[in-house]
User: Fold this.
Amino acid sequence: MNRNLKLLTNRYIVLIVVIALSFWFWKTVKADFFISMVVIFQSLLLLKFVSDQKFSSKLAVLLFTVLLFTGIFLIRNNLDNSLWVLNPTERVRFDRRHYYFAEELGKLYMNKFSLYYYTNLSTFLYKYQRNVFYNLDPNLYFFASHPRERSGIDSFEKYSPLFLPFFILGTIWLFSNKSWKMFGYLSLVTVISGFISLNYKLGPILFAPVVNVLIVLGLVTALKYAFKNIYE
Amino acid sequence: MHLKTFMNRHVSIILWIIILAISFFLRFYNLEEIPNGLWVDEAVQGYNAYSLLLTGKDEYGKSFPVFFRSFGNFQSPLYTYLSIPSIYFFDLTVFATRILSVLAGCLTVLLTFFVVKEIKINKSNQLALLATLIVAISPWAIFFSRIALESNLALTLVILGTLILIKSLKNPKLLIVAAGVLALSTYAYHAERILAILLFFGFLLLFRKNFLNNRKAVLFSIILFILIHIPQLELITSAGANSRINQVNYWSDNYFDQNGGAYKDIIFGKYFFIVKKFASQYTTYLSPTNLFFRPDDQEVLSMPDMSIFYTWMIIPIIFGIRAVFKNRSDNTVKTLILLLLLSPIPASLTREPFYTLRTLSLFWVISLVISFGIFEILQKIRKRIFQFSLICLILLISTVQFYISYFILFKYERSEAFGAPYIELIRKTKELSFKDFLLDSQRTPSIYILIAFFRKYDPSLLQASISDKILNNYYTDVQFSENRIVNLDNIRTMPIRWEDEIYEDKIIVGDLLAISDQQVEEHKLTLLFDIKNVDGEVVLRAFQTNPTKKCKEGTVPSGIRENPCIKKG
Assistant:
């Protein structure tokens, strides 16, 4: 019984099951086999990296190197060009706001520095933040962004909503165990993903290993708790 | 006593006073001008209070109703009733209508201090002061305090109830007071009808061991809680009491038929659909995207480019969540976690994607979590000068962001949503009081209330225009007619009837969709004046009819029994 229990709560086996049950993974296999393999590889590495008590610098270097190269590859092929460009509606609003700021702020706005910021930086900063925060929406992964679907973006359900409670449990695990390793990885993924187009057919694929690992940690915690109560 | 010694001894009190002063200023400053205009939901609160003051009845002629019929949404009554004194002292004005919300918002800031003071890690009131500051400067807290909102008043009562609940752990008799306050909050806003019940009984369940020896207090508190609910319970089966939830729920057969998708083909599909819908709604209220970046889609409930919280607050919240876990055995923290988990439930039972008004308690608790996070970060910074610099930086960034979003962009970009063009129109109708006006209400059937408000229309005249059928079926006949004709002095609001209105001498006013250029030409209308928004775009157009010209034309619309030209002579 103990052997079966150990097997059932083996994190790596659970991870394979979670990946196999994820709609996102199979969509990735169909669309880009190479990326799907990277997702499996990164998920395994990340799980080991986060689970190990000791900090392994070799593992960290491997993990972050693969992430960086994958990130660069995705950015090169799917850069969000709208980060620097205004569409017609945005241009109208941009021009109007220039007038508002000039009226209300006077010299505080009408100076070299403020005008440079507004003209050259504000659009990029706003849109980059938009990309970052859209990727941090749990509904994007479990409910295809429902109920706040984004117009013009084809969101698809990446995981069954049944995994949501385990994802939440995994997130609780993350906070209660102070896993700065996971936070570090997540931060880098967030920064890189902000440059990738929201219309990319696979969505924020760099987040897949993070979500996989969190679901696994939540599932394993739940399974251990359930079996502990049954067998004790 | 030396000033320095005095300051050292009383630094907490001094800081507390400064923070309260900041919160008062941010909520009171230019209250009549920003928001620019008056939302119809605010106007109906003010006007009903005015009507009650003068006649003891609401706009429909109902004497002291339990729910205000309003536009068929049966608003909770407490805000309206508590507005009567301010209307009495300040007359029917925008300021008088909003001041209760402002005071409730300031009280929220004050109560925050006392709630956080109960947490054990709060040493020398540092955490309590920080939490008070964060609530004082949070965008959601300032924004919702400056609009006449029932939910803001409800939030204050929920926080007060929560504080008394926490205190009742040491003094069980206070449970009765907490029950009274929470029960009262259910008269403040619809969401609290669910939240207050969940919170009160959830608290009793969570701390049942504390109350085992105080069963009398528990019993009396439950009795009082139920007693206060009696007026609502009497109407619980009426269409009026359930009107709002019926309008916004997602478990009706009709909604499932239209949106069920693949769930319609599986056994028990409706139940799976409801559970999934609830889960998606619930998580959306906890999504970082919606809390820190993406504003509410409704223009009257959000500021341009500003979400519930400032974007930078996503960093301290990570530390704050960790701090909450660390201190989860603290009774106050346990109560706050309970409130955090329960707060999204009422909103999650509705179909709107992200309706901020229904979850103000959630935002308040998250504000406290953010303050815990900032506290943790400050504790890691040893030197006082760096701590002080960090606070100053936070205040500076927040002030700049808020000023740009609220005092500039909001003023310009949301004035139309707050009816500013219509207020300008009302001013024009006063200038031209000798002319009859017809204001198209096809898309804005509730616009009459703005006219009644700003013209201080005699409530008894408005009440007299209501049919007995509505008055006698106040809570049962819930239909709000979109074709309702309302006469207010020289203004009539109704959908334009092109068959006969153009044969009378009047000024017809409508938005750009109401009166097309073709209709202007066809009906011989003459443009009198435009009403523009702050961008200079035309929003409303006012046309003078020319019945003589129209009649000379000789054509009369088919289907009209009497020739209006002959009828009018």
User: Anything to note?
Assistant: Residues 136 and 190 of chain A are 8 Å apart (CA to CA). Chain A has a mean pLDDT of 91.
